[in-house]
Structure formats: structure tokens, C-alpha cells
Design goal:
The chain has a 6-stranded mixed sheet with strand order 1-4-3-2-5-6. It has helices spanning about 20-30, 65-70, 75-90, 100-110, 120-139, and strands spanning about 10-15, 35-40, 45-55, 60-65, 95, 115-120. It has a single domain (about 10-139), classed as Ribonuclease H-like superfamily/Ribonuclease H (Nucleotidyltransferase, domain 5), CATH 3.30.420. Helix content is about 45%, strand content about 25%.
Length: about 140
């Protein structure tokens, strides 16, 4: 997949077809950092409906539900391949907020584990615990 020009910063792109995946997939794959959020029944045996990615410049909304509803399996398998390549790439930082359910949903869809994850919820928990220990230590 070749990068077709620069995208205007601040724009959002709905990705629901093979063609839109071919157009925006390279921009996702060439990201250094991605904010990630998933919607759906994110549990073992569940399903992913929507994947939201933001690279700090643009937002990409991958509509898995729409692909499945239309029976567009070619688009679904390309989305799966792109997502798998993103999620296993250690050069791309993936930022989640409480990635427990999202990671299960992704694992069900792309059958792999995510690498290089920064979880803002885990970070907040760590900071809260450190503050508590600091207060105890100061007594």
C-alpha cells in the first residue's frame, strides 16, 4: 500500500470498504503513535463493531459492523490484516484507556496480542498508589 498524499490535519475518515482501507490504511500503518478505542461486545466470544484510531493528526473510524452487515469479507480481511500489523508492530505506540476489554476484543478479531501499549488507566492507578505510599512514608 502506498501513501497517497498528506491528509489535512483534524479530519476524520470513515473506513467501511476495501477502497477506503486501501486509501487510509497506509496512513494508519505509517503512524508512530495511535490512540485506540473499540466498540462492540468486547469479551471472549464477542465481536468488534467499530475501531477508532487517532494518530495525533487524523481520526480513522473503521466500521467493522458495516463491513459484516454488507457481507464485505474482502474489506473485513484487509481491515483485520492492517490492524494485526499495527498491533504487533513494536515501533507504533498504542495508547488505550483501560485496555482490558479492548485487548480481548482485538485478540478475538486478529488472534494476536498487542505490543507496545500505554494504558492511561493503569498509569492513573500507579500514580494514585504512589501518592498514597508517599503520604504513608511522610508520616
Amino acid at each position: 500500500m502506498n501513501l497517497k498524499g498528506e491528509l489535512k490535519p483534524g479530519e476524520s475518515f470513515d473506513i467501511f470498504s476495501f477502497e477506503s482501507l486501501m486509501e487510509y490504511g497506509p496512513h494508519i500503518l505509517n503512524s508512530e503513535i495511535l490512540g485506540v478505542d473499540l466498540e462492540g461486545n468486547l469479551r471472549k466470544g464477542g465481536f468488534v463493531e467499530m475501531i477508532q484510531l487517532n494518530n495525533g493528526k487524523n481520526t480513522f473510524l473503521i466500521d467493522i459492523w458495516h463491513m459484516n452487515e454488507r457481507g464485505d469479507f474482502e474489506a473485513f480481511w484487509l481491515a483485520r490484516k492492517i490492524l494485526r500489523n499495527v498491533m504487533i508492530n513494536p515501533k507504533i505506540i498504542k495508547i488505550f484507556h483501560d485496555c482490558r476489554h479492548d485487548s480481548v476484543g482485538l485478540h478475538e478479531m486478529i488472534e494476536t496480542c498487542i505490543v507496545n501499549v500505554f494504558d492511561t488507566s493503569a498509569c492513573e492507578t500507579l500514580i494514585s498508589q504512589l501518592e498514597l505510599y508517599r503520604k504513608i512514608w511522610e508520616k
